[in-house]
Amino acid sequence: MEPTDTPTPRRPDEHDPRxxxxxxxxxxxxxxxxxxAERVAELTGCLREELLDxxxxxxxxxxxxEAPPGxxxxxxxxxxxxxxxxxxxxxxxxxxxxxxxxWMGRRHDSHPSLHLRVGDDVLEVSEAxxxxxxxxxxxxVERHSGAGAQP
Length: 151
Hints:
single chain, alpha+beta, 4 helices, 5 strands, 18% strand, globular
């Protein structure tokens, strides 16, 4: 198989060919307690549109799996799944986290929860103050200085 310049989205548990978890991809899972699937899809779409304006390679909506037998509705957690391919920009992760923080700050009425993952490092944000979110995001970006974070 020939190597390509196009990033290949991977499942959250998939490793790259060198055996490491992919570090230039940010997985985002957006949820909102008691939200309808349409509401989560709308929130995810708004966040995706803002992220597409950044210097990142791609922002992909991850497909949800099939509903289990007997389930009455789609899995809302799969509707809110995005994959951000950070690319080679030295500030991409920091830019993405800044946009996510700003986006969350405008959603005080709805209180969405986020599950963010780069490689095997996970950050979950739910019902936190703006200062707590800012500090958690700063630490997360620092841990991934090689994944598009500030130098």
